[in-house]
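Whiteboard transcription, Tuesday session. T.W. wrote the C-alpha cells on the left side:
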C-alpha cells in the first residue's frame, strides 16, 4: 500500500520521513538537501556550525550566525523545491539569535528539543516557518501546548516524540534508561497523539506526531504509521550515506560498531547520551582527559570548571575523522548499519519496505 505524504501545515513531503538533525557537522546542507530532493524532509543541525572555520577565532557567536545563513542558502540552492528544516537545541546559549536568523532566512521549520522550547512561537508566529518541538513524554507535549496556547495563542505545527533508543543526548534520566522497556516508543506515540488532540480541535488543524528513536527499517516506519503517527524521524541510517557531511572515518566507525560497542555516557552538559565506545571515552571514564579551557560556552547547562572534556571539541574532532580525540553519537541500532549508500537508494529501500507493511486505517 502506498505510503501517505507528510503534511505539516502547507508543507507536504512525498515520503513521511524526516532526517534527524545531527551535530556537530554531521547533518548540514549536503545531507539535508539530498533527503529533501529524494522526497523526504532534510534537517540541518544548528549546533556549532562554525567551529571548524578558523577565520573567526573566538568570535563564535557571529561565526555561528554567518555559518547558519550560509548552510541554509546552500541547502536551498541544492534543493530549491525541497523541504528544509533546522534543529536548534533549546539549551544552546545563542538560541534566540539562531532561531531569529533561521526565520529571517526563510527556513521551512524549526525543530527544537534538549529542553522545553516555550518561547519558540514568539519568533515564528506570522511567518512561513513552522514550529516543531521534540518531546519524550505526553506530559511534556501537554505542557508545551498549554504554554504556547496561553502565552502565544499558537499550537505546534507538528510534534516529534523521541523514544529512549535514539542517539545523541537523550530526554531520559539514567535510571529511566536502565528500565528502557517502561518507556517504549510504541507506548509514547499514542499517548502524545491523545495529548495534542484537544489543541487540534481548538485550532482546527492537524498536528502530525512524528515518531523518532530507534527506527531503522521500513517495517518500523509502517508500524508507527499504522498506529496513527504522521511520519517518522530517522538519523542513524543517514550517517551511512555518501551525502552525509561527516568524514569517511566517522562513517567507518558506524560500519565497524558491534552491538556491544553501543554505550550510554554521561555528557558534560548533564544529560545522558548514546554513543559508540572508543579509546577516547575509555580515557574519559578513567579520568585521563581534561579540557584545556572553555572556548565556546555553547551550552548553558555545561559547567566548564567541572566538565571532564569539551564535548563541542570532541564532536568536532570526530566529525573531521580524529576519533582518538573524539567520539560518535549514535542510535541503538547503529550496529545494523553495514554499508554506505546514496540517500536516494536508502529512501527508495525504506519506502519499498514500508509499503509492504503499511495498513491504513479507514
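and on the right, the sequence the group agreed on:
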Amino acid at each position: 500500500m502506498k505510503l501517505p505524504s507528510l503534511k505539516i501545515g502547507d508543507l507536504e513531503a512525498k515520503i513521511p520521513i524526516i532526517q534527524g538533525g545531527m551535530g556537530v557537522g554531521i547533518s548540514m546542507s549536503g545531507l539535508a538537501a539530498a533527503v529533501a530532493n529524494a522526497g523526504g524532509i532534510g534537517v540541518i543541525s544548528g549546533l556549532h556550525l562554525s567551529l571548524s572555520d578558523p577565520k573567526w577565532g573566538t568570535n563564535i557567536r557571529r561565526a555561528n550566525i554567518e555559518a547558519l545563513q550560509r548552510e541554509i542558502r546552500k541547502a536551498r540552492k541544492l534543493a530549491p523545491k525541497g523541504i528544509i528544516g533546522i534543529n536548534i537545541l533549546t539549551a544552546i546559549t545563542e538560541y534566540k539569535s539562531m532561531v531569529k536568523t533561521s526565520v529571517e532566512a526563510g527556513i521551512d521549520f524549526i525543530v527544537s528539543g534538549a529542553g522545553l522550547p516555550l518561547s519558540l512561537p514568539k519568533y515564528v508566529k506570522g511567518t512561513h516557518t513552522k514550529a516543531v518541538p521534540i518531546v519524550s513524554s505526553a506530559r511534556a507535549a501537554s505542557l508545551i501546548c498549554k504554554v504556547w496556547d496561553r502565552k502565544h495563542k499558537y499550537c505546534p505545527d507538528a510534534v516529534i516524540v523521541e523514544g529512549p533508543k535514539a542517539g545523541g543526548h537523550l530526554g531520559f534520566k539514567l535510571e529511566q534508561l536502565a528500565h528502557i522497556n517502561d518507556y517504549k516508543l510504541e507506548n509514547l506515540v499514542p499517548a502524545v497523539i491523545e495529548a495534542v488532540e484537544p489543541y487540534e480541535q481548538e485550532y482546527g488543524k492537524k498536528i502530525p506526531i512524528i515518531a523518532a528513536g530507534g527506527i531503522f527499517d521500513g517495517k518500523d516506519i509502517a508500524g508507527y504509521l499504522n498506529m496513527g503517527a504522521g511520519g517518522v524521524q530517522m538519523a542513524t541510517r543517514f550517517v551511512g550515506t555518501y551525502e552525509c557531511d561527516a568524514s569517511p572515518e566517522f562513517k567507518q566507525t558506524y560500519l565497524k560498531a558491534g552491538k556491544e560497542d553501543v554505550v550510554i555516557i554521561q555528557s558534560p552538559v548533564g544529560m545522558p547520551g548514546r554513543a559508540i565506545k572508543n579509546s577516547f571515552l575509555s580515557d574519559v571514564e578513567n579520568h585521563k582527559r581534561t579540557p584545556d579551557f572553555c572556548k565556546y560556552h555553547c551550552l548553558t547547562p555545561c559547567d566548564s570548571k567541572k566538565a571532564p572534556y569539551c564535548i563541542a571539541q570532541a564532536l568536532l574532532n570526530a566529525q573531521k575523522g580524529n576519533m582518538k580525540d573524539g567520539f560518535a553519537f549514535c542510535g541503538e541500532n547503529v550496529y545494523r548499519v553495514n554499508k554506505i549508500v546514496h540517500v536516494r537508494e536508502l529512501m527508495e529501500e525504506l519506502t519499498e519496505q514500508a509499503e509492504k507493511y503499511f495498513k491504513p486505517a479507514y
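Someone added at the bottom: The chain has a mean pLDDT of 92.
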